[in-house]
Design goal:
six-stranded parallel beta sheet, 254 residues
Length: 254
């Protein structure tokens, strides 16, 4: 009987304390790009995270519907071997707000991103703030839209070298006409530790809207003197923010 005393004590303590949160370090990062972009926009951040020992994967969103982008993200999350930091830029914020309730997601990082509440009309919310200049530069054709070259260079990638901005313009993702009207059914930021980076000089998503979203989420927030593409103009700061999330999210999750 004495041999059973310790196991029974451990079992009793486990029942009293409930499930024990994971304490393993976070080494996985999944990056979700936004509209008018593809996964290559994360290249500079990926290099820095890999040097820090992180396992990094970038999602390639089809930008055909919210459901399609969420499914693409969930497929990548399913491949991760443990707790993961889920990061999004711009439109990708809607995607991770929906997909981020996945049990593998330990924290969310929003980079100048949308962060809708469940069922929220985000377009109506955005209208409470001045319309950003990039909106006037959309070119529509065949049910899809993209940014014209002048709007892309000036309003989307305004603080990048022109040659780099033109290369990004050449690979931009075309978005389905109805993409931005889709509404999320979940708001993962309500149940996960959250970080938000505000781009102070953003001409694609109004900076005051970004600040509102960050405050509403009660996110750990940093501001950068950046265009919309902060992960390219300020890759060190964005990589540092993601690493901060990776280093502190498990403690906050407990």
């Amino acid at each position: 009987m004495k041999k059973l005393a310790i196991p029974l004590l451990v079992l009793s303590l486990g029942a009293a304390l409930g499930p024990v949160a994971h304490a393993e370090p976070i080494r996985n990062v999944v990056l979700v790009h936004g509209a008018y972009a593809d996964g290559s926009c994360w290249t500079d951040v990926i290099e820095r995270l890999q040097r820090a020992g992180m396992h990094v994967t970038a999602v390639q969103n089809p930008l055909s519907s919210l459901a399609d982008d969420v499914e693409a993200t969930r497929r990548i999350l399913a491949l991760q071997d443990g707790p993961t930091i889920l990061v999004a830029h711009s439109w990708g914020g809607a995607v991770i707000s929906e997909a981020g309730t996945d049990p593998k997601v330990a924290g969310l990082v929003y980079v100048a991103a949308r962060a809708p509440d469940a069922g929220e009309d985000f377009a109506a919310l955005a209208k409470r703030f001045p319309t950003p200049p990039a909106s006037a530069g959309l070119v529509r054709s065949g049910g899809f839209a993209q940014l014209g070259e002048q709007a892309f260079l000036r309003d989307f990638a305004g603080d990048l070298p022109v040659a780099r901005a033109k290369a990004l313009y050449a690979v931009q993702g075309r978005v389905a006409e109805g993409l931005f009207s889709a509404r999320t059914t979940q708001a993962a930021w309500k149940v996960k530790p959250t970080w938000y980076q505000v781009s102070r000089d953003d001409r694609t998503i109004n900076p005051d809207l970004q600040r509102f979203l960050a405050q509403r989420m009660k996110a750990h927030t940093v501001e950068l003197p950046s265009s919309h593409l902060s992960m390219i103009s300020h890759p060190d700061a964005i990589a540092d923010l993601i690493l901060q999330a990776a280093n502190t999210a498990p403690a906050e999750a407990r």
